[in-house]
Each structure stands twice: as structure tokens, then as C-alpha cells.
Task: structure prediction
Amino acid sequence: MAKSVKIYSSPTCPWCVMAKQFLKDNSIAFQDVDVSSSQQAVDELMQKTGQMGVPVLEIDGDVIVGFNKEKIKQSLGL
Result:
């Protein structure tokens, strides 16, 4: 079954671009949440992680801060 993947990102963040490309390269569907254009997204991010850094990936409720390829692969079962 496909996992629910959400990525909190901003357009100016190179790690965000790499994380999204990694998901695309592995044919993983994801919801992209742009924190630069939504105060609600910023509030959500703060509530989940207590900080403002992006990217943050949420995979089936598992929160990964930063583009940690090994953790992402493990969480996705790749």
C-alpha cells in the first residue's frame, strides 16, 4: 500500500529540491506544503517539530527533519 507522504518545503531551499527529486526518482507520490506562502503550514510545522527548518518529511506520521536519505528510504521501505 502506498504511504502518505507530505513534505514541508520552501522554493528557495536546495535541500527541499533534492528531497522532492529523490521522491520523484523513486516514484513516490507526495503532498508539497510550501511554508513560504502559508502561515497555517508554518504553524503545522512548528507544532510537529518545534522548529522552522525545512525540508521536513512526514511519512505515515513518521517525521523526518532534513534531507536524511537513509531515514527516508527506511521509512518508505525502499
The CA atoms of residues 49 and 65 lie 8 Å apart.
